[in-house]
Design a protein that fits this description.
With about 575 residues, the chain is of the alpha/beta class. About 40% of the residues lie in helices and about 15% in strands. It folds into three domains: about 170 residues, 2-Layer Sandwich (Beta-Lactamase); about 250 residues, Rossmann fold; about 60 residues. GO terms for molecular function: guanyl-nucleotide exchange factor activity. Pfam families: Avl9.
Length: about 575
């Protein structure tokens, strides 16, 4: 990975063009920058994913933009790539979880164009501009490819080189920053939220979605760096969104079927965004075809001849696929939940339909499942949301999406609140922290103890929704989404305990402690404090870090002169 394109690679892996070759089929015609080398399977996956699986000669003129997610096959190359991109490590520590750089997948976006051309043997010109990145900045990349692809189709490869050069001049992606990114004659203004930053919509009015960001001429505001339109792709499923939220939270297998890659890919990404701040930790492919290298492994549990024990194990892991090929509905008959997305002209479906009907190729829009949900449907609130969304069709889709997100953000916060309260009780008491002993670990998460606490401090304190909350939590505790959330909380608790322990160390009477201690004991404490200083620097706790260093100076003076000379002290931070 060359340093020449270092800043570009902080944002993207590559930009390329996929074309149709009469002899070879889809092929990667162009890839930039020149230092990028995709593996054979990665190239094959990109080529097949970049062309709509359902595109038809009945629609000779097609411009379609859609999202994909591809497994990274070259593990050795990925290791080198990540070593080069230290900024990605920083993002994992500082950004919201859903914006963390991917480690095993590329997030991709394609802009496919088909036009009739009599000079070509097949009668059609077919090409797709693609962008691959380890950053799930879907909305930002949507704006970028919408500007880049038309330039390529009119000016050729030079347009992609200009695009890459523009990105290469951008600042590094830093969490907590609002960035202005010059791009092809305009400026994209976007914020990259830091971890814990509130993701709330202050108003559902379009002119108040970004109240603090007044645009200048030539500036395009991107309200959310990742969030996409929910309104159009999930329009016919509005009355099922509560159950779909539940299934997504649990990581239940869900097949999302639509007529176009754009709709199914945005539906999948939209559903996984509704459970924030919980991160979707299961396998997810916004757009999936039978040509994907993982097709057999991912779909085997849902075929007629799959082994039942293996089937059950894999189902528990969760999987969400977006597809357009009717083959999936006909062949994958054991799929437990299927959502068929319709268009804005279709009626909203209110009743859950039987799974027996998914074997037909002409699947009607609706939700097909046996799952009725742990929670009772909040019919009044859902009707209110639907009414508000439909009352003014002239509103931008972003406003309708914001209303839906706000409803589910409130629901998710009610679900998370008891978990957060219980997590806080697992922290050791301040009086249990001894600066001269190793910091105590947090108490373990006990499911039984948590469930018993729900009667006095459960979701009913913040939500009017009734139902079997206890069973929902119990099921959630067996799922990857819970383990991903708990792992992040353990890191937070560890960091907080480190901060409290370091603060106690900076205020302790180290000279009094050292009076009856041997040289070995003093050195041992100094080495522990030195390790603590490094950890504090990573956490940017510079004031406490300097306090610990000052205490180290006092302890060092207690050592023999010869030992003092060989002990390397860390330098304090200038505040």
């Amino acid at each position: 990975m060359s340093e020449e394109w270092g800043r570009f690679h902080e944002w993207m892996k590559c930009v390329g063009v996929v074309t149709f070759d009469l002899e070879l089929g889809q092929k990667l015609e162009y890839c930039f920058p020149p230092d990028v080398k995709l593996g054979e399977k990665e190239t094959s996956d990109v080529c097949y994913m970049a062309f709509p699986d359902s595109n038809s000669s009945n629609e000779p003129e097609i411009d379609e933009r859609f999202f994909m997610r591809l497994a990274i096959r070259q593990r050795k190359a990925l290791s080198i790539f990540n070593d080069f991109l230290k900024i990605h490590k920083r993002l994992r520590n500082e950004s919201e979880r859903y914006l963390e750089p991917e480690t095993r997948h590329f997030s991709g976006i394609a802009f496919f164009r088909q036009v009739r051309d009599a000079s070509i043997h097949r009668g059609f010109y077919q090409k797709a501009v693609i962008i691959l990145s380890q950053l799930p900045f879907h909305n930002l990349f949507r704006h970028i490819i919408d500007l880049t692809a038309p330039e390529y189709f009119s000016k050729g490869e030079a347009a992609l080189e200009s695009m890459a050069a523009a990105v290469n001049r951008w600042p590094s992606p830093i969490a907590g920053e609002t960035m202005e990114l010059p791009f092809l004659g305009s400026v994209l203004r976007v914020r990259l939220p830091a971890y814990g930053e509130a993701q709330t919509v202050r108003s559902v009015e379009s002119n108040q979605l970004l109240p603090t960001m007044a645009p200048s001429r030539g500036t395009t505001l991107i309200p959310q760096i990742s969030d996409l339109d929910l309104y159009r792709p999930l329009y016919t499923a509005f009355y099922h969104l509560s159950v779909l939220w539940e299934l997504t939270l649990l990581g239940e297998p869900l097949l999302v079927v639509s007529a176009t890659p754009k709709q199914c890919s945005q539906a999948v990404l939209g559903l996984t965004s509704l459970i924030r701040p919980f991160h979707y930790c299961n396998e997810m492919r916004p757009y999936f075809t039978i040509h994907d290298s993982d097709f057999k492994d991912l779909t085997q549990p849902f075929t007629n001849n799959s082994d039942s024990s293996t089937d059950q194990n894999k189902r528990r892991q969760g999987l969400m696929l977006g597809v357009t090929n009717p083959f999936f509905c006909k062949t994958l008959t054991k799929w437990p939940h299927v959502l068929k997305c319709g268009g804005l002209d279709d009626k909203m479906s209110k009743k859950t339909k039987s799974l027996d009907k998914i074997k037909t190729l002409e699947l009607n829009p609706g939700f097909y499942s046996k799952h009725t949900g742990y929670l009772d449907k909040d019919k009044a609130s859902i009707e209110k949301v639907v009414k508000n969304v439909l009352s003014n069709t002239r509103r931008p889709p972003e406003v309708a999406s914001a209303m839906i997100r706000r409803y589910f953000a409130t629901l998710t916060r009610s679900f998370e609140f008891p978990l957060e309260r219980y997590i806080s009780s697992l922290m050791p008491l301040k009086k249990q922290i001894d600066p001269f002993k190793p910091p105590p670990p947090p108490h373990p998460f006990e499911v039984k103890t948590f469930l018993l606490s729900l009667s006095r401090s459960g979701p009913q304190l913040t939500s009017s929704i009734t139902g079997d909350w206890t069973s929902l939590y119990r099921d959630f505790f067996r799922r990857p989404n819970f383990f991903g959330w708990l792992e992040r909380k353990k890191i937070e608790m560890r960091d907080k305990i480190l901060e409290l322990h370091a603060e106690a160390t900076s205020e302790a009477d180290v000279l009094g402690w050292a009076e009856d201690k041997t040289e070995v004991e003093i050195m041992d404490l100094l080495l522990q404090m030195k390790q603590k200083v490094g950890d504090l620097e990573q956490l940017k706790l510079f004031r406490i870090r300097n306090g610990v260093i000052l205490q180290m100076e006092h302890l060092k003076d207690c050592l023999p002169y010869d030992t003092q000379k060989i002990f390397q002290m860390p330098q304090p931070t200038t505040l």
